[in-house]
Write a structure and sequence with these properties.
By secondary structure, the protein is an alpha/beta fold. It has a single domain, classed as 3-Layer(aba) Sandwich (Rossmann fold), CATH 3.40.50. The protein contains seven helices and five strands; from the N terminus they run βαβαααβαβαβα. A five-stranded parallel beta sheet has the order 2-1-3-4-5, sandwiched between helices. α6 links the parallel β4 and β5. α1 runs parallel beside α7 and α2 packs antiparallel against α4.
Length: about 180
């Protein structure tokens, strides 16, 4: 049986949406429940919790809207308003958390690209944390380059986790210790 103490749940928040529109976040409950069904004592770390609270702040929304309306052809990130700088810092801290995890599960549904998820996956890869991508984008070079496993959908993840727990099937070849 595989031992997992902490699993990083990466996934689309904004995807390719404009502004601060957010994709369905229901998977942030579904995936941890699936993980805990096989590994009851595991901590599932959701890096989006703090980020989504900050993004919902009306003051931040106003700042983003103003930048979008009057954006010059070049923006120096050093000149961004404090609210944006704070959000950048939160994103950086949350992304670094993956290095303290045993596994990264990255959920990219409906072929929606997510730059934040890609950054989290790459941070996991650099830290030697195995990455399981749950996506239909198996042909995407960035996904293939940093993933240890690419699973088609949440049903495949459920089976993979069950096999990982029992040490049977394809999941037993996973190098998570």
């Amino acid at each position: 049986m595989m031992k997992l103490a902490r699993v990083f749940i990466a996934g689309t928040i904004q995807g390719a949406n404009r502004g601060l529109a957010v994709e369905d976040q229901g998977y942030r409950d579904v995936i941890p429940n699936m993980v805990r069904a096989s590994f009851p004592d595991v901590e599932c770390f959701d890096p989006s919790a703090v980020v989504r609270v900050r993004m919902a702040d009306p003051g931040l929304s106003g700042v983003v809207a103003e930048i979008a309306r009057s954006a010059p052809s070049a923006i120096s990130t050093a000149d961004l308003p404090p609210q944006i700088e704070d959000l950048r810092g939160v994103f950086h801290r949350m992304t670094r958390e993956v290095q303290d995890c045993d596994l990264c599960i990255a959920y990219l549904p409906h072929r929606i690209p997510s730059m934040g998820t890609a950054m989290e996956m790459y941070a996991a890869y650099l830290a030697g944390v195995p990455v399981v991508a749950v996506t239909e984008m198996a042909e995407n070079l960035a996904i293939v380059a940093v993933s240890d496993w690419i699973l088609k959908d949440l049903d495949a993840l459920r089976v993979w986790l069950s096999e990982l727990e029992s040490g049977a099937g394809f999941a037993d070849r996973m190098a998570v210790q």
